[in-house]
Design a protein that fits this description.
alpha+beta
């Protein structure tokens, strides 16, 4: 009977053994990695369980969409803080937890952490990256510190002082529009929209020395900024569209990138045009000379500023900072001003006291406009502005993602890598005060005021988006 030759099997096993070893090592590493992640998640989940959470919308969305950028969303935040005065946890989708802190003593634990530990959260900021680049809002570390030092001269009072004339001019244009509406009889006016156009008009003049006349006629650039702000806020509420490759295929994604190109092209054109007019002499001498004949704008200062090593900002860096200030400056300022007018409308006795303070200051003057040196001569108006900002802050929440566990005073722990949001809008409040605030927010939707020129209906704002800083 013939013998079965198995020598080929041994040779085959010997030849394949290195590959089997590699496969075994890879499988072992994968298993160890999975077990490590499971153990880490178990520890994280153990800490998260100590934070109360409201009912989810469903298993996939979690709590996403529960707090919308509307009046109803503001009411919901009020209820949540009243129910969970120390803080609560929500889920953005099925696997991303967010811990919202409400009490000042709890918030202090996160805010006192160093910048290297309490990093800016990346989800919402990632949506802004194609638009704002690496400006102060989105950058961090050494780049943030360097740009912060280089931008400081742009806020020297000698540069800011002439801007008051620009603010007055832009406000007069807005007032003239209101006068025309009021003189025609009863009218409805979206306060936030009008003030947003006024702040954008002012910023374009201060940043670019460009007058678009956007308060009187449509401006493609201004429309693009408003559209970008709305699209970013809308995208945050749609979980699947957090994926960049998917968002780019949607109509909103295409609109977003089209608006980005328009805004970038405008800023780039201003930068290039200004570079061609820059002198070869010392920048400080140029700034002093130009300041005597013309208001310096933000681009002027950025183009001529240098760091301690004599290095200038690149065109891309300048564009990022200019676009950042156009975005951050118009929305927050418009929101703050709108709420100030609303709160003064709710308290006519304080409104009249502010008016009398201004009239007393301007008595016997030829010019009826406020000047730079007048700003310190209006103590009561200043108090009203600060109180309104306390009650209705333009940025309602700030978010961080810590690189290490953060221990809270009550013994709970925010695990590293978990997003934490610090609520600025509301602190722990009583049930009675909660009801008062809810009624206040409801009344803010439509407030009727009688002016000297007629009846003017003012539609006051709700926050436009998940304000973060």
């Amino acid at each position: 009977m013939p013998q079965l030759d198995l020598s080929w099997l041994g040779a085959s096993l010997e030849a394949s053994s290195p590959w089997l070893l590699v496969l075994l090592i890879g499988a072992s590493w994968l298993l160890a990695h999975v077990l490590t992640q499971i153990y880490s998640f178990y520890g994280t989940y153990h800490h998260l369980c100590r934070f109360p959470q409201p009912p989810k919308r469903n298993w996939f969305l979690g709590h996403l969409g529960m707090i919308t950028p509307t009046e109803q969303g503001l009411k919901q935040v009020t209820r949540l803080v009243a129910t969970y005065p120390q803080g609560f946890m929500t889920w953005m989708g099925p696997v991303i937890p967010i811990i919202t802190l409400c009490h000042p003593d709890i918030i202090r634990s996160v805010l006192n952490a160093s910048a290297a530990v309490a990093l800016k959260e990346v989800i919402f900021y990632t949506f802004l990256k194609p638009w704002l680049g690496d400006g102060l809002l989105l950058s961090s570390g050494d780049k943030w510190s360097r740009h912060r030092r280089m931008l400081t001269p742009a806020f020297h009072f000698n540069i800011l002082k002439p801007y008051v004339k620009i603010f007055n001019d832009s406000t007069n244009i807005m007032h003239a529009k209101w006068q025309r509406l009021a003189s025609g009889g009863s009218a409805r006016l979206d306060m936030f929209e009008n003030i947003s156009l006024m702040t954008l008009d002012s910023l374009q003049k201060c940043v670019f020395s460009f007058d678009s006349n956007c308060q009187e006629k449509p401006s493609e650039y201004i429309s693009a900024i408003l559209e970008l702000s709305a699209l970013v806020s809308k995208r945050f509420q749609q979980l699947l569209l957090h994926i960049d490759s998917l968002y780019q295929l949607t109509p909103n994604g295409m609109r977003f990138h089209k608006a980005c190109r328009l805004v970038h092209n405008f800023t780039d054109a201003v930068i290039q045009d200004r570079r061609h007019t820059l002198p070869s002499k010392d920048g400080d001498d140029f700034l002093k000379t130009k300041a005597k004949s013309k208001t310096l704008d933000f681009i002027d200062v950025l183009l001529l500023t240098k760091d301690e090593h004599g290095k200038e900002l690149s065109d891309e860096d300048i564009r990022a900072e200019a676009d950042t200030f156009m975005f951050e400056g118009h929305d927050t300022t418009a929101s703050g001003l709108s709420w100030i007018l609303y709160n003064l409308a709710r308290h006519p006795e304080y409104q009249e006291r502010c008016r009398q303070e201004v009239r007393e200051l301007l008595r016997d003057r030829k010019s009826p406009e406020i000047e730079w040196d007048d700003l310190n001569q209006l103590p009561f108006l200043t108090m009203c502005i600060k109180e309104s900002l306390r009650l209705h802050p333009p940025v309602t929440v700030i978010s961080r993602c810590c690189t290490q566990d953060i221990s809270l005073p009550d013994g709970r722990v925010i695990p590293k890598g978990v997003l934490s949001a610090s609520s600025i809008f509301l602190r722990p409040i009583t049930t009675q005060l909660c009801g008062q605030i809810l009624r206040s927010i409801t009344r803010s939707a439509l407030t009727q005021r009688t002016s000297r020129t007629g009846h003017l209906w003012l539609l006051f704002p709700s926050p436009l988006g998940p304000g973060t800083a």
